[in-house]
């Protein structure tokens, strides 16, 4: 009888153990619902990745697809953005420096969705494009997805007939009520590379510790974004004394810090060593612009535009400052940034105007 009991007990424990193992395997399998084969990407359709659950247009992130937001955002014709990071299981990024992008593992995908919530008529919400940067063993690649009007899918348009990029005519309402109509530019791969280039290799821009060392309101509460990445197993560690940018819209912060943060996210990726505009005299990385000469104060422009526009920054006089002129222009021969905008960023120009007007030094 005892032998029979022990036999039943053994069978029961064996079955329970198998059931438990099946459950564990299921959880492990479902720890990331993302569909990603590094040898097959980029996929033809955005939905194939399964980055999002439910209706694709809701951009509801799937398990392990982590939202993030830099302290200041790159201006793209007033488009709103939703950004996400996904990495393969068991991999982590590493911290290199405050102003260097996180050292991401192969397989990392950075997801950036561009949309408007006030498309006219009717203040409709419409996603225009989704840009992916995917890290392969050979380096980062771009994958550009264009959304259909029904907002049910986004199709890969990188390369092929899209080699020269395209434009989409839109009308939207600004916060001040002004209606803007413009040809929103959807960049080609070459145009992406122009801004995302360092040492002639593609590289992300915004995912630097200095830019994401700020809080984000996650579904389960507010948390520092770097700490969130650590907790998700996406980041090894990071120092506690990161010198960080700020939200340039935050008027409680010092004016110069706000301006430097704005220039860092909008301009520094080109105005740095071994980048697109490294031949220019100015260096606009946040880590360098505490030096006013790097910012262009009293510095003669590489290509003076006129006798009244000789200096990049003329203290106290925005009208005689090349940077102000370029930021205020929509002419392709003069505007800065050259790519990424077709209209003037009024708030950015106003911030620069205030900062230049606050300077009182005399140029030699």
TrEMBL record:
This is Uncharacterized protein.
